């Protein structure tokens, strides 16, 4: 998830980053530090010169991603069809900032949107290729889905209470009975194969485009090994019509996995009151009945 944020959110600002760099990585102390224009919620990200970034978790719950990404990004990169972040160094807590933090290579590119993507069908195939390559990566020793992934890739039951509460709150604004049917259909299935790698947040804000084509996938903070259904949610949040159909065909997942993908998309859309996505999920479900 990426948004525009004022510098200073979560007590983190460019001056703090400059001081941390000077203290822990003096070789980069002379590089300018500037906040990125479009930032994620889980971390504050700063340009460090032209080649590097500093990425600082905004809360304790996001800290697990620092070591996870540092360990696993270099192992995943060789098998993926597009660029992903390169781990450079890990910073320590200091100067009143309480968490470990990361230095990464800067990746140029424009955030994916219907305006920046040249051909949505081709983009859908590129995302599908990335997902399939990720699923094929070696899982030996990989981090099983759990709290570190905010239960992406784990059983959807983890989100059940939130989903039921949100359904009750939106019952006058959506077809709550049909939404409940979608949710129950998702819970009725499970991933019964060995765990595979998933990204956990394949969304437009984590997809970079150059010359209209997918060039990089960023932010592996919710990644892990488990059920890959969560990576199909982009079918409802970004694609529609022919591009959604292209994505479905190219990503070659079975009906049960798509049922859980609808459940994943529905849960997030309900708790954020993203009603267009709710309707997209419900319409897709209607076509399966």
UniProtKB/TrEMBL annotation:
Q: Does the keyword Disulfide bond apply?
A: no
- Has the keyword Kinase been applied to this entry? yes
Q: Which InterPro entries match?
A: AGP_Transferase, Aminoglycoside_PTrfase, Kinase-like_dom_sf
Keywords, sorted A to Z: Kinase, Transferase
> Which stretches make up the Aminoglycoside phosphotransferase domain?
39-262
Task: Specify the domain of life of the species encoding this protein.
Answer: Bacteria
Which Pfam families does this chain map to?
A: APH
> One GO molecular function term?
kinase activity
Query: What name goes with this protein?
Result: Aminoglycoside phosphotransferase (APT) family kinase protein
Q: What is the lineage of its organism?
A: Bacteria, Bacillati, Actinomycetota, Actinomycetes, Propionibacteriales
